[in-house]
Design a protein that fits this description.
- With about 375 residues, the protein is of the alpha+beta class.
- The protein has 2 domains: about 170 residues, GAF domain (Beta-Lactamase), CATH 3.30.450.40; about 170 residues, Heat Shock Protein 90.
- About 45% of the residues lie in helices and about 20% in strands.
- The strands form 3 sheets. Strands 2-1-5-4-3 form a 5-stranded antiparallel sheet. The protein has a 5-stranded mixed sheet with strand order 7-9-10-12-11. A two-stranded antiparallel sheet has the order 6-8.
- A hairpin with a 5-residue loop joins strand 11 and strand 12.
- Helix 4 packs antiparallel against helix 5, helix 5 packs antiparallel against helix 6 and helix 6 runs parallel beside helix 7.
- The protein is elongated and about 90 Å long.
- The two termini are about 30 Å apart.
- About 40% of the residues are buried.
C-alpha cells in the first residue's frame, strides 16, 4: 500500500509541474522540455539521495524550475549544486552557509542568499523541504540572481519539484525495505531447507562410494555445485533457466536415493527461460513434491511444466502423491501447514512482483498436488545477477 501511495504521489507531483494554466503553440516546446527534465530526474533519485544521484539530478531540476541555480542538500550540507555561482558554491558546503533551513515541513523564501563573496550574483532563494515517510531528510533550494522578482508561480513550481524529489526518495526507501525483507526471507529459507537436504544427499552419496565410486564422485560434484548456488549470498535473482539448471542437479541427487522409483518429466517453453525469479523459488516446490508426494509412498512422478501466457509465465510443479485437502493447502500458503519454504517463496514472489503474482496450490487427498507459480516475463528493476 505504501509503495502504491508513493508512486501515485510521484505521478501527481510530476503532472502538477507539467500542467500549464493554458496551452498555446508557443508554450508547447517549454512543456516538452519540462517533461523531459522531470522524467530524466526520476531514475537517479530512485537510487536514493547521495552525492552521485544529486549531482545527476540537479541539472534537470534547474531546467524544470527555470531557476538561476539549484542545490540538493541533506540535513546539513550541499550534496550538489548547479547553475550560476557554481564556481564558488559546491558540494560539501554547509547548507546553513547558503540559506536557513529549519527542521520542519514548511517551505520558505529567503530574501538574501548567505554568501561571503560580494561579487556573487545570487540574491534570493526558495527552500523546500524533502520529506520521506514523514521525516525531513534534506532540502531542495532554488536560487535566483539579482533583479529577479519572485512570484507565487516560482514558489509553486519549487514546492512541486520538491514533492517530486520526495516521492522518488520515498520509492527508493520502500524498495530498499522490500529488498531487506526479501533477503531476510531468503536467509530463513536457506536455514529451513539445508538440514534435511544435506543429510539425505550425503547419505545417498555415501551409498555409492563402495559400489559405484565414479557415480559417487559425480554426485559429490553435483552436490557441491548445488549447495554453492543455494547458499551464495549476493544473488537474490536468477533467470528461470539458471534455477531449473540447479533444480535438475537437486533431482539427480534425489534420484540417487530413489532410483527408478522417482520419475521426472521436465517440459518448459524456451521463450520463458529468460524470465527472472527469486533464487530458490522453484527448488522448494520440487523438494516438497519429493518429500510429500514421493517419500511418503516410496515412489512417484514429478512433472515441471513452464508455459508462456502472454506477458506472464506459468510454472507448474506436479506430483502424483498422497495429496491434501483444501484447508491444509491454504494453511501451507499462509505458513501454518508445514512444507519446506512454500510460504517463504510466496512472500518473496509477492514482495518482488506484487500481490497479483505468486503461488496457488491445487490438491485433493489421494489425487496428488500441483503448485502453480505465476510471474511476469519482465519487471523493471528486477535483474538476474
Amino acid at each position: 500500500m505504501l509503495l502504491g501511495w508513493a508512486i501515485a504521489a510521484s505521478v501527481f507531483a510530476a503532472m502538477r509541474l507539467l500542467r500549464p494554466a493554458r496551452v498555446v503553440s508557443g508554450e508547447v516546446q517549454a512543456i516538452q522540455t519540462a517533461l523531459h527534465a522531470a522524467t530524466a530526474t526520476l531514475p537517479h533519485l530512485r537510487r536514493g539521495l547521495s552525492d552521485d544521484t544529486a549531482a545527476k539530478a540537479v541539472p534537470n531540476l534547474r531546467t524544470l524550475t527555470q531557476a538561476s541555480a539549484v542545490a540538493l542538500a541533506d540535513r546539513s550540507s550541499l550534496l550538489a549544486f548547479d547553475g550560476v555561482g557554481s564556481d564558488h558554491h559546491t558540494a560539501g558546503e554547509l547548507l546553513s552557509g547558503l540559506v536557513s533551513a529549519g527542521r520542519d515541513d514548511r517551505l520558505h523564501v529567503e530574501s538574501e542568499v548567505r554568501c561571503g563573496r560580494p561579487d556573487c550574483p545570487l540574491d534570493s532563494a526558495i527552500v523546500a523541504p524533502l520529506i520521506v515517510t514523514g521525516e525531513w531528510v534534506g532540502s531542495f533550494v532554488a536560487l535566483y540572481v539579482r533583479g529577479h522578482r519572485l512570484t507565487p508561480e516560482d514558489t509553486r513550481t519549487v514546492a512541486e519539484a520538491a514533492s517530486l524529489v520526495s516521492a522518488q526518495l520515498e520509492l527508493a526507501e520502500l524498495e530498499e525495505q522490500a529488498q531487506r525483507l526479501a533477503n531476510a526471507e531468503l536467509r530463513a529459507l536457506r536455514a529451513q531447507i539445508s538440514p534435511h537436504f544435506i543429510y539425505n544427499a550425503l547419505a545417498a552419496i555415501a551409498g555409492y562410494i563402495r559400489t559405484a565410486p565414479e557415480e559417487a564422485r559425480e554426485l559429490l560434484t553435483e552436490f557441491a555445485e548445488f549447495t554453492r548456488y543455494a547458499f551464495r549470498g549476493q544473488r537474490p535473482y536468477v533467470t528461470l533457466a539458471d534455477e531449473l539448471h540447479y533444480v535438475e542437479k537437486y533431482l539427480r541427487l534425489e534420484r540417487a536415493r530413489f532410483g527408478d522409483r522417482l520419475e521426472v518429466r521436465l517440459q518448459v517453453a524456451p521463450e520463458v527461460l529468460h524470465a527472472v525469479v527469486p533464487v530458490l523459488s522453484v527448488q522448494p516446490l520440487v523438494e516438497n513434491a519429493v518429500r510429500h508426494g514421493v517419500e511418503r509412498q516410496g515412489h512417484g512422478r514429478i512433472e515441471i511444466t513452464g508455459r508462456d501466457i502472454g506477458t506472464d509465465v506459468e510454472l507448474l510443479v506436479s506430483d502424483n502423491g498422497v495429496g491434501m485437502d483444501r484447508a491444509r493447502a491454504r494453511a501451507i500458503l499462509d505458513g501454518d501447514g508445514g512444507g519446506v519454504g512454500i510460504a517463504n517463496v510466496q512472500a518473496r514472489l509477492q514482495t518482488t512482483f506484487g500481490p497479483e503474482y505468486g503461488l496457488e496450490i491445487a490438491s485433493e487427498v489421494g489425487g496428488g498436488t500441483t503448485v502453480t507459480m505465476t510471474l511476469p516475463k519482465f519487471r523493471a528493476g528486477v535483474r538476474a545477477a
